[in-house]
TrEMBL record:
Its EC number is 2.7.7.72, 3.1.3.-, 3.1.4.-. Its cofactor is Mg(2+). Residues 170-226 form the tRNA nucleotidyltransferase/poly(A) polymerase RNA and SrmB- binding domain. PANTHER family: CCA TRNA NUCLEOTIDYLTRANSFERASE 1, MITOCHONDRIAL. This is tRNA nucleotidyltransferase (CCA-adding enzyme). GO terms for biological process: tRNA processing. Keywords: Hydrolase, Magnesium, Metal-binding, Nucleotide-binding, Nucleotidyltransferase, RNA-binding, Transferase, tRNA processing. The keyword Magnesium applies. Residues 252-398 form the CCA-adding enzyme C-terminal domain. It comes from the Bacteria.
Length: 408
């Protein structure tokens, strides 16, 4: 058994033995019924946060205002949340407060969709008050209760609906979809960070086009920050997003997304900053964009063009560009096997694969260290990779000496 599931079961058992109700709830129950490996195992219990903390010595209150206590069990982290209902929603985002309750049903009722509103006990019995299991089997995302009210409480739920549609290839129940159209403008109150967490999941899902179809059909997308501030041609962007390729990894899908808005390599940094991407992701997107732009120009890349690109950017961004090229133009100008062979046959792939190091070059050339060292090594790396010279110390030092004279 998954060690996280085992830990969750033992925590539930401990709560049960102390006289409290405790269940697996939410996403993990849905995923177990779908035969998928859950992201996390959440537990809901009738015990109050103080009671939970008393019972587990290795525990700390992580979201006490939401009733969540984090329990350390073996090497695992298990989140235990007290049954609760939510108070007023004042700003379409967060409840003003929560009330702890002793009933499982009340706790499940506050959850967003029927497929996420089921609980399971230690014996595998399902607690399914809103027909979530039937919806799971028919592939339907349906709000718990009155959809419009639920979306007015928390607008993020509408974007989550699109996300679950992308992740599971499910459709949205017509009444739920109608409510999304009705409440679409409320997404403007959401923070970019919360929206991006969902966007990231849509872009990393097996069927991102389904998620975008939902966002575009309901016009939620037209009101989502930060995209409302981007100039975009609805028809073209819609067309591109609903044809998002399925072979790209997440980074490639982000680039496809940016390309849909006619983003170029120069503007990728400002756009990704608006989307709160990490620096690392932003650089990866930038590399893919740069390769993609050059690839489009050369059309039929040969070894002499591709190997330096592979050296400069590495394998991952090139593969992503390949997928994007294929999806955009239906051809890449070179076969996949050919690309892989070029990568595999290169005797070196980075400067540190060379048989000499910078200090050896410096002592042979007899010049003060400076930018010339990096420049010379990278030229040598390219020559070795292209098979022009062998990766042998004496030869590298000799050729390196000649190259170094170019640098003042
Ligand atoms: P994932 O696979 O991404 O973890 P998940 O369904 O588990 O998906 P979480 O964000 O981990 O999503 O939330 C856990 C559970 O909490 C959900 O299954 C749902 O029951 C409930 N939930 C989460 N966010 C909301 C929300 N905005 N409104 C109502 N219920 C929510
Ligand atoms: Mg989860």
């Amino acid at each position: 058994m998954d060690p996280r599931r085992k830990a969750a079961h033992e925590v539930i058992q401990m709560l049960n033995e102390s006289g409290y109700e405790a269940y697996l709830v939410g996403g993990c129950v849905r995923d177990l019924l779908l035969d998928r490996i859950p992201n996390d195992y959440d537990i809901a219990t009738s015990a109050t946060p103080t009671e939970v903390q008393k019972l587990f010595s290795r525990s700390f209150a992580t979201g006490i205002e939401h009733g969540t206590v984090t329990v350390l069990w073996d090497q695992e982290i298990v989140e235990v949340t007290t049954f609760r209902t939510e108070g007023f929603y004042e700003d379409h985002r967060r409840p003003s407060g929560v009330q702890f309750v002793r009933s499982l049903r009340d706790d499940l009722q506050r959850r967003d969709f029927t497929i996420n509103a089921m609980a399971m006990d230690l014996d595998g019995n399902l607690y399914d008050y809103f027909d979530g299991h039937a919806d799971l089997e028919s592939g339907i995302i349906r709000a718990v209760g009155t959809a419009k009210e639920r979306f007015q409480e928390d607008a993020l739920r509408m974007i989550r609906a699109a996300r679950f549609s992308a992740q599971f290839s499910f459709s949205i129940d017509p009444l739920t979809q109608e409510a999304m159209v009705c409440c679409k403008q409320d997404v403007k109150y959401l923070s970019v960070e919360r929206i991006m967490t969902e966007m990231d999941k849509i872009l990393g899902s097996p069927t991102p086009h389904m998620g975008f179809q939902v966002l575009l059909q309901t016009e939620l997308f037209h009101h989502m920050p930060p995209f409302t501030g981007w100039q975009w041609d609805q028809e073209r962007v819609g067309e591109r997003l609903t044809h998002i390729p399925s072979n790209c990894q997440r980074a490639g899908k982000w680039v496809w997304f940016l390309l849909a808005f006619s983003t170029t390599a120069d503007s990728v940094e400002s756009r990704t900053r608006e989307c709160k991407s990490s620096k690392k992701d932003s650089q990866l997107f930038q590399s893919i964009m740069e390769i993609q732009a050059e690839w489009t120009e050369v059309k039929e890349p040969d070894e002499k063009w591709m190997k330096p690109i592979l050296l400069r950017y590495g394998w991952e961004p090139v593969v992503e560009s390949y997928c994007i090229q294929q999806a955009l133009y239906n051809e890449t100008g070179c076969k996949w096997e050919q690309l892989r062979d070029w990568w595999e046959e290169m005797p070196v792939r980075k400067v540190t694969d060379l048989s000499i190091q910078g200090n050896e070059l410096i002592s042979v050339v007899g010049k003060k260290p400076g930018p010339w060292v990096k420049g010379t090594l990278s030229e040598l790396c390219q020559s070795v990779a292209l098979g022009e010279i062998p990766n042998q110390k004496e030869i590298l030092l000799k050729v390196g000496g000649q190259i170094a004279t170019k640098y003042s």
